[in-house]
Structures are given as structure tokens and as C-alpha cells.
Design goal:
Radius of gyration: 31 Å
Number of helices: 12
Bound molecules: guanosine-5'-triphosphate
Number of strands: 12
CATH superfamily of the largest domain: Reverse transcriptase/Diguanylate cyclase domain
Number of domains: 2
CATH class of the largest domain: Alpha Beta
Low-confidence stretches: 1-9
Helix content: 40-55%
CATH architecture of the largest domain: 2-Layer Sandwich
Strand order of the largest sheet: 2-1-5-4-3
Length: 305
């Protein structure tokens, strides 16, 4: 880093000295800034950093991370600093920071090493960008892109992505895979009789029941309006019928509470298809054909392709 020649040519002396002009300048910046010497002792910081870690500058200066933070966090900061000193230049990384009062923020560190007159690494300057809001938004968007907001199951796009991977694994390893396609019986009547809002609650109730009945390895997808797909990895036809029956009866035995005196009984029809080297599209299509058969057999029924 080049310093103005009218300043002390030794940057470390300059940074560790009392420099009102430098302090005033960095205090006007809204992002937390700190600087340390080459053994990790804090030389200074700006006001935003004081606010950020909730330590006053006077308590910070002269201490290292082990004296200021809990051991786990201090180790993380120390090894990141060490990595920069071992490989001087610019270091960028993201991570969690915890203030001395315990609140956690997700941040991006931008750190730069600086040298003394002999071109030896003398310390580092760090800037912290608080990206907590951005991370929260990212995880919300990922959640929205992955799950169906009404039922909490995988949405169609994500479900088919996951199942695409599962299908490839099945194909390569010649493993069994069963697909159940479920459709709620006479769902139009629910909407017509009780309104769309109750219809939505019913879909939520059904999805919860399916989730409670599922095994960990089952992949549950809201495929369309009142249609669900369930993929059963490593399950051959005989077991697929047993599992489909388990899903069907779990729902048929339950009733959704509408009011003190009113219960809504819901059933599903289920079509099953099992992997026999056909494409994923065909596998799903066959489950649809079997579902059609189940619908034609009075509903609340399981049919195999
Ligand atoms: N409330 C609500 N209704 C939905 C949603 N998605 C689809 N539906 C309704 O689901 C109903 C499906 O009706 P149909 O395809 O005629 O089938 P059904 O009445 O279930 O009859 P069968 O499938 O033959 O037993 C329609 O009334 C759709 O409006 C949703 O997200 N919320």
C-alpha cells in the first residue's frame, strides 16, 4: 500500500498512532473496518466496527481475538488471518460472526495485508459487509423455488429434478423404483360445498397425512392441483402395493375438523407404476394410466399398471 510521503513512512506506526484525521475518515464510513498487526493484535477500528461487535475501540486496541471472542470463533478468525499472512494480498470469504453479546450476523470479509518499509507483511486491514438480509432473502427464494407453499411438499419442478437424479441412480444400479400417483377424490365437491379456502386447508391436511405416513426415503411431490406423486426408491411391485395401501388407508381413516360438529372425510385414488427400464416420462405416464383405472373402480382404490 502506498502512503503519502508526508505521513510516517512506516504504516504500522502510522496505524497504531493517534491519528484524528484517519479516525475521522474511517468513522464516516458505514461499513465496519478494523486493522491488526502481524501477530493479530488489534491496532484500531472505526465506529461501525464498534457498533457491529459491540466492543469499544479502547477495549479492542492491544488485544487479540482470543482475548475478545470465545475460543471457537477466535480460532476461526485466527486461522483466517494466518492464511492471509501466509499468502499476502487480498482475502475474501463469507461466514458467521457473533458479537460479544451473542447476536449472529452473516458477513462477507474483505481483508488486505499490508507491508512495512522492508516489504515484510506487517498486518491486515479488514472490512465487513453485513449480508444477513441478502442471505435471508436467498434462503427464502430457494425455499419458494423448492417447496410448494400450500403443502410444504416439493413443487413439481423441484420434485422432478430430485426424481431425475433418483431415476438415474436406479437405472445405473438396476435397482427397483416405484411411483405412486395420487389424486384426491371428488375434490371439486369440497371446493363447491365449502369454498376454496377450505379446499386449500384440505390439501394442506392431505399433504400432512402423506408426510406423516411416509418413510424417510420416500420423495413426496405436489404434482398439480390435487394430484401428488410419491417415489419409493428401492421398492419393488409387491411392496409398492403395500405402501400405497398404507397411504390410502391413512387418509381414509382420518377426518379433517371443519367445526365442532363437522368433519370432512377425504379419500385418494392411487395408481402405481414400477421401473422396468422404461423412461421416467413413461414411468409417470403409466402411474397416471393406473390412477385412471383406480378412479373408474369407484375411487379410494389402489391400482397397479
Ligand atoms: N382449493 C383448491 N382447489 C384446487 C387447487 N388445485 C386444484 N383444485 C381443484 O381441484 C378440483 C379438481 O376437480 P376434478 O379434476 O374435476 O376432479 P375431482 O372433483 O377431484 O374428481 P375426481 O378426481 O374424478 O375424483 C377442481 O375443482 C380444482 O379447482 C388448489 O390449490 N386449491
Amino acid at each position: 500500500m502506498n502512503m503519502d510521503s508526508s505521513l510516517d513512512s512506516d504504516l504500522i506506526t502510522y496505524l497504531s498512532g493517534n491519528n484524528p484525521m484517519l479516525q475521522c475518515l474511517i468513522d464516516t464510513l458505514p461499513v465496519p473496518i478494523f486493522y491488526k498487526d502481524k501477530v493479530g493484535i488489534y491496532l484500531g477500528c472505526n465506529r461501525a466496527f464498534e457498533d457491529f461487535i459491540k466492543i469499544e475501540r479502547s477495549q479492542l486496541i492491544g488485544n487479540n481475538v482470543f482475548q475478545l471472542f470465545d475460543r471457537e470463533l477466535a480460532e476461526i478468525y485466527h486461522s483466517a488471518d494466518q492464511a492471509l499472512f501466509d499468502n499476502p494480498g487480498i482475502q475474501n470469504y463469507e461466514g458467521m460472526v457473533r458479537s460479544t453479546q451473542g447476536d449472529e450476523r452473516y458477513v462477507k470479509f474483505h481483508k488486505t495485508s499490508f507491508e512495512d518499509n522492508n516489504n515484510e507483511v506487517a498486518g491486515l486491514i479488514g472490512i465487513i459487509f453485513d449480508i444477513t438480509a441478502q442471505k435471508q432473502l436467498e434462503s427464502k427464494l430457494t425455499e419458494q423455488a423448492t417447496y410448494d407453499s400450500l403443502t410444504g411438499l416439493y413443487n413439481r419442478r423441484e420434485g422432478l429434478n430430485r426424481v431425475g437424479e433418483l431415476y438415474e441412480l436406479t437405472r445405473r444400479n438396476k435397482m427397483p423404483l416405484a411411483v405412486l400417483m395420487l389424486d384426491v377424490d371428488h375434490f371439486k365437491r369440497v371446493n363447491d360445498q365449502y369454498g376454496h379456502q377450505v379446499g386449500d386447508q384440505a390439501l394442506h391436511f392431505i399433504a400432512n397425512t402423506l408426510r406423516q405416513t411416509s418413510r424417510k426415503s420416500d420423495v413426496l411431490v405436489r404434482y398439480g392441483g390435487e394430484e401428488f406423486l410419491i417415489f419409493l426408491p428401492n421398492v419393488a411391485e409387491g411392496d409398492a402395493i403395500t405402501f400405497a395401501e398404507r397411504y390410502r388407508t391413512a387418509l381414509a381413516k382420518k377426518a379433517m375438523r371443519l367445526s365442532k360438529s363437522q368433519r370432512l372425510h377425504l379419500t385418494v385414488s392411487i395408481g402405481i407404476s414400477c421401473y422396468r427400464q422404461q423412461t421416467l416420462t413413461d414411468l409417470i405416464h403409466e402411474a397416471d394410466i393406473a390412477l385412471y383405472e383406480a378412479k373408474s373402480r369407484d375411487r379410494n382404490t389402489v391400482c397397479s399398471y
